Amino acid sequence: MKKSLLLAGVACIFAANAQAIELSPYIGGDYNFTSTHHPEIDINILPSQYHSGTFAFGTRLGRYAAIEGFAEFSKYENKPDVRLSYRAYGADVLGVLPFGCHSQFELLASIGAARYYNKIKIKGAGGKDELSEYDWGYRFGAGLQYNINEKWAVRAMYRHVLFNKPRFAYTNLDAVSVGVRYYF
Q1: Which of 17, 99, 161, 173 could pair covalently with 137 via S-S, beta carbons 3.0-4.6 A apart?
Q2: Minimal CA–CA distance to 178: which of 53, 75, 27, 76?
Q3: pLDDT in tens, 50-74
Q4: Is the model's pTM score more than 0.85?
Q5: Burial of 95 (C-beta count, 10 Å sphere; 0-12/13-18/19+)
């Protein structure tokens, strides 16, 4: 009886390990080109395009999913009387569909949320005025990743961001990014 229980216990341990999710943590960086949409505001005042960088960290959850956190920072975009920038912090859930020889290519789909901080400096006759706002952005994206080897990958993504309550900056964003990922 004891041997049967011991054998059943060992079988349960091996069965549980067979179903365990393989985690692959990674870090990465992206260059982003962002186009803004603000139909209610004079387009000549605010910049319509941004260049930004993203630091990303995440983990693969098996072959078909990943969770990724990020911090994104835009450089200041200047107009004659306005200087505007944004930064964002958030997380995305990615669906991954491997294809090609040895699964070197992967189709990506993402959904997530981020907290965007918009900062506008207006140069006036009497000095500089500064406006800022925080807003939640909901992100939807699709892309392609090429796995160079087990450690390195390059990625291209398109994302559309919708804002919860846009006030003075923009109603939504379209962003194209290219970047690299390093898997531990």
Answers
A1: 161
A2: 53
A3: 889 999 999 999 999 999 999 999 8
A4: no
A5: middle
